[in-house]
């Protein structure tokens, strides 16, 4: 199939690409096994591919920004600060840290059966992996997991979103013009039929999907038929809290809080999986917060038109859904003064919704039902925090993230204890996704698995235990072999069974469990020597 911007990959070619991806992985592993220094050769290969990817994207920065602007009027600064710079930083972090991540980790076990052997955990590539990326961050959320997969030693097939066709086409051009080894990184273009063929294939050793919970559920079901592991980065209706313990007497602090909330709510026109989806505000500060919110919104958007440097909705579907919800809301809508009377020029394919605050939304409001995924921020006034948490838990028990604006550590901990979420930010919004040394991911319906820094690398590897037991140890382990005797059973119990370090009431004994293991080891050694002497 062909759209005005994108040529879809035929189903026959998809089969060929999957076969090439799998063959590349096995061929490279065979070639690698013949190397004089396998570890060094493998590391150098992976680093070289990451550097190629970095240079290719950096070289084509301007064309990628233009493509995103063409797809959905993406503000160029947002493409740079929210998409490309984080991608550059991610890849450079991988290049810098890969020599450390790739090393096997030695571990120990204090049991006499293992303590004199060699135990280490190595991280091996999964094989051929599939990355299915979304439309809202069409470069970052495509190429960051691709880079993670390459860093981990896999071959990759990327399926970009068809909803941002200019960007998908540009990424394919960049990848195909970069001198990657044949089969390492390939692109498949398409929509539902092409994606279905990919996720149903037993070829892949892992699937990394970013998108909606509805489609994520389908991906998981299809992958489960082949026992293919998945990482699902999904969405969720993420709440923001402005509690009674947030000091609004500090006007500058309240002003900054509003700017941070609106940065998260309206960047990329609110089309961010971690955007604050609604704001719950304690009744004692509600009116003051609304007054400040109006001031800040007009400061941030002093001018507004179809030509404003402001990101539009990605296509007509999301635009129509959200405008319909705004027509049905029970709340009071407020847009920047400059946007008064604004109407998007949909005839020319411009699907623009101004940043919109909706005051006094009840729980049963249409805007409070599902993730809005657009530049709309409902305000809900609450009186009792526990009752509010009860309502949130009853609706969306596992949001992707929660945002807390409270000066009370106890209150923050109360919310964190009651409300499960993938992540949490205190005093800011959305920027946590760029932290290199912490995991980003959902919980339950907002996804499973995570990535970011080493966590992204670990998502694409299998941790394999390698244990080497010296043969001379058998004089201490003879009791495991048949024929079994009472003496052997007693030795097995002394040597291998851990002893509880607490009594029936749960009170700890004065000695440490490892001390018991030491004496167990001595006992086994003496028993073995005695048995050897008797024989």
From TrEMBL:
<dbReference type="Pfam" id="PF00171">
    <property type="entry name" value="Aldedh"/>
</dbReference>
<feature type="domain" description="Aldehyde dehydrogenase">
    <location>
        <begin position="36"/>
        <end position="466"/>
    </location>
</feature>
<dbReference type="GO" id="GO:0005737">
    <property type="term" value="C:cytoplasm"/>
</dbReference>
<keyword id="KW-0812">Transmembrane</keyword>
<dbReference type="InterPro" id="IPR016162">
    <property type="entry name" value="Ald_DH_N"/>
</dbReference>
<feature type="transmembrane region" description="Helical">
    <location>
        <begin position="515"/>
        <end position="533"/>
    </location>
</feature>
<dbReference type="InterPro" id="IPR016163">
    <property type="entry name" value="Ald_DH_C"/>
</dbReference>
<dbReference type="InterPro" id="IPR029510">
    <property type="entry name" value="Ald_DH_CS_GLU"/>
</dbReference>
<dbReference type="GO" id="GO:0006081">
    <property type="term" value="P:aldehyde metabolic process"/>
</dbReference>
<protein>
    <recommendedName>
        <fullName>Aldehyde dehydrogenase</fullName>
    </recommendedName>
</protein>
<feature type="active site">
    <location>
        <position position="233"/>
    </location>
</feature>
<dbReference type="InterPro" id="IPR015590">
    <property type="entry name" value="Aldehyde_DH_dom"/>
</dbReference>
<dbReference type="InterPro" id="IPR012394">
    <property type="entry name" value="Aldehyde_DH_NAD(P)"/>
</dbReference>
<keyword id="KW-0560">Oxidoreductase</keyword>
<feature type="active site">
    <location>
        <position position="273"/>
    </location>
</feature>
<dbReference type="InterPro" id="IPR016161">
    <property type="entry name" value="Ald_DH/histidinol_DH"/>
</dbReference>
<keyword id="KW-1133">Transmembrane helix</keyword>
<keyword id="KW-0472">Membrane</keyword>
<dbReference type="GO" id="GO:0004029">
    <property type="term" value="F:aldehyde dehydrogenase (NAD+) activity"/>
</dbReference>
<comment type="similarity">
    <text>Belongs to the aldehyde dehydrogenase family.</text>
</comment>
């Amino acid at each position: 199939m062909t759209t005005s911007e994108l040529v879809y990959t035929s189903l026959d070619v998809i089969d060929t690409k999957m076969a090439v991806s799998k063959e590349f992985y096995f061929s490279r592993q065979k070639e690698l096994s013949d190397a004089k220094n396998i570890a060094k050769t493998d590391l150098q290969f992976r680093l070289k591919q990451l550097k190629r990817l970095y240079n290719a994207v950096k070289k084509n920065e301007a064309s990628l920004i233009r493509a995103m602007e063409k797809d959905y009027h993406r503000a160029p600064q947002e493409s740079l600060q929210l998409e490309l710079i984080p991608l550059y930083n991610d890849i450079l972090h991988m290049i810098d840290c890969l020599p450390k991540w790739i090393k096997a980790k030695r571990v120990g076990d204090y049991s006499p059966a293992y303590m004199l052997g060699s135990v280490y955990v190595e991280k091996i590539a999964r094989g051929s992996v599939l990355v299915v990326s979304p439309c809202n961050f069409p470069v970052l959320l495509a190429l960051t997991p691709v880079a993670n997969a390459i860093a981990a030693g896999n071959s990759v097939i990327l399926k970009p979103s068809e909803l941002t066709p200019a960007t998908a086409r540009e990424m394919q051009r960049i990848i195909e013009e970069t001198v990657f080894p044949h089969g390492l990184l390939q692109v498949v273009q398409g929509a539902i039929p092409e994606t279905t063929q990919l996720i149903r294939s037993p070829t892949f050793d892992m699937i990394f999907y970013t998108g909606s919970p509805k489609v994520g559920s389908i991906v998981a079901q299809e992958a489960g038929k082949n026992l293919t592991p998945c990482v699902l980065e999904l969405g969720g209706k993420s709440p923001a809290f402005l509690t009674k313990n947030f000091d609004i007497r500090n006007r500058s602090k309240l002003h900054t809080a509003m700017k941070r909330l609106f940065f998260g709510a309206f960047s990329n026109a609110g089309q961010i999986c971690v955007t604050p989806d609604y704001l719950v505000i304690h009744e004692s500060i509600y009116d003051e917060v609304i007054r400040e919110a109006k001031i800040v919104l007009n400061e941030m958007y002093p001018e507004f038109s179809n030509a404003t440097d402001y990101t539009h909705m990605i296509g007509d579907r999301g635009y129509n859904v959200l405008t319909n919800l705004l027509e049905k809301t029970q709340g009071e809508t407020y847009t920047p003064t400059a946007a008064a009377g604004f109407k998007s020029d949909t005839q020319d394919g411009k699907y623009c919704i101004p940043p919109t605050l909706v005051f006094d939304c009840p729980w049963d409001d249409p805007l409070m039902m599902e993730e809005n995924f657009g530049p709309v921020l409902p305000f809900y006034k609450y009186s009792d925090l526990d009752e509010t948490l009860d309502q949130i838990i009853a609706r969306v028990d596992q949001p992707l993230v929660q945002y807390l604006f409270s000066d009370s550590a106890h209150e923050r901990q109360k919310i964190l204890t009651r409300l499960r979420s993938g992540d949490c930010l205190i005093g800011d919004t959305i920027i946590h996704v760029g932290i290199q040394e912490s995991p980003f991911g959902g919980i339950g319906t907002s996804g499973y698995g995570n990535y970011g820094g080493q966590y992204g690398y670990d998502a694409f590897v299998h941790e394999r235990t390698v244990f080497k037991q010296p043969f001379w140890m058998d004089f201490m382990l003879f009791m495991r072999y048949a024929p079994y005797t009472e003496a052997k059973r007693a030795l097995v119990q002394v040597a291998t069974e851990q002893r509880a370090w607490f009594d029936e009431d749960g009170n700890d004994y004065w000695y440490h469990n490892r001390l018991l293991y030491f004496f167990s080891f001595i006992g086994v050694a003496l028993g073995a020597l005695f048995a050897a002497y008797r024989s």
